[in-house]
Each structure stands twice: as C-alpha cells, then as structure tokens.
Amino acid sequence: MSHHPLHLGVDEVSELNHQLSGKSAENIIEWAHGYFDHHMVVTSSFGDATLAHLAWGVSPLIEVVLLDTQFLFPETIAFAHELRQRVGGVLTVVQPEGIAPDVELWKLDTDACCAVRKVAPLERLLEGRHAWMTGLRRDDSQSRANTQVIALDPFRDVVKVNPIAAWSNTDFAAYKARHGLPDNPLTAKGYASIGCWPCTRPVEPGADPRSGRWAGQDKTECGLHEPRVSRVTVSTR
Ligand code: SF4
After folding, report:
1. What are the tens digits of pLDDT across the range 100-153?
2. Relative to the CA of 71, which ligand 1 atom is closest?
3. Nearest CA residue ID for atom 2, ligand 1
4. Are residues 156 and 126 in contact, defined by beta-carbon separation less than 8 angstroms?
C-alpha cells in the first residue's frame, strides 16, 4: 500500500507533538496550514469566536465549517456569519442529508439524532481530506483531559489538529480579551457550552460548563470526538 505524504503514522505524530509542544496556537495552525493546505478543514460550533479567529488570523483561506444540525440557536448562526464578515475568511455551513429539517429525532433518541445531524455530515466533510482541526481543550472536561495537539482519528482516517489543547481557561479568556472578541449572545444568558437548542441548558456560575449539554442524560459528547458507533476503515498502515 502506498504511503500518502499527508498520511501520518504513529511515530510521526509523536514526533510532531514533541516538536510542537510549547509552540503558540498560531504557530501550530501555521504549521498545519502549511502542511495540509486545503486538505485540512476546521470545525467550530461557534459557541465562541476563538478558533475561527485564530484560524482566519493565520490565513483567511483556511476553511472553517459550522455543522448546522438545523437545531442550532439562530443566534449561533448569525454569530458565525458576523464573525466571518468582521475577520474575513472562508466559512462553510454544512447541513444534514437524509432527514427532513423539522424531524425531532432528539425526542426519541439523542444518539441517533447526533449521528444523522452531526456525525454523518462531519464524515462526509472529511472524505478526501487529511486533517481536521478542532478547538478541543484539556480543560474542557475530564473526557478531554488527554487531548494531544496532534492525534490520529482512526475512525475517519484523518489527522486531528488541536492547536489550543493546552490552553487553560485563563489562557482562553486572555486571548478573547486581548483581541476584543465578541461573545456568542447566549453566553450572557448563562449558556457556557453551546450546542443545539433542545439539548443545551444554561448552567449556574461556576458549574462544569459542559453540564448544560444533554442535561439529565448519561451523554457528554455528541460523537464527533468520541465516536459511539464506529465506522472503522481498517488500515494496514
Ligand atoms: S445535540 Fe440534540 S438536537 Fe443536536 S443533533 Fe444531538 S440530539 Fe440532535
């Protein structure tokens, strides 16, 4: 099997993590953009402006994607477009296929709903790409505490680039303040982590920010980052 130059192996990933550790988020994004170019896509849920601002600051040609489940808050969609206008950059809005916009599958089965409205569109998006950049941070939650800057996503056969993995909540707030970034308007209403409106609740000040997602359910992730149903392509590499 030929080794595509943009496919990284386990040893290369570990070497890259070594090289990139301690580098700024901007440096990491510059490296990733230089290396993967248009074979990389960035996803942002636009709960905040940080990742899109960082990516477009490095190059407005970096494609930032909003996965529009069709149950996002209208404020979030407007926020994404306003930020694109303000900063300037490529914004793509991706919607689900194979389900009518108004089908409330979340009332019956949130995993199935996330699978068709978020995970399948992401996987279509990543087909033919080699890298996927996200805003995951170790400080987000316990389940993200081991996030590496560069990782292999064996489920999608792409390299995952997490340029702000090492940022603390303080670093995150400092970047926002330094650049005068606007908040998603829902932040002021107590929403700490913002997803779809049926599955997001405001949280009390000081509570775990992600506790407002799928509140009351044994669910903490939508399946983008922790696939529940694997679509494994067996790789011989
Ligand atoms: S977060 Fe809720 S509404 Fe959004 S895709 Fe998942 S189950 Fe559906």
Report:
1. 999 999 999 999 999 999 999 999 999 989 999 999 999 988 888 999 999 999
2. 3
3. 199
4. yes
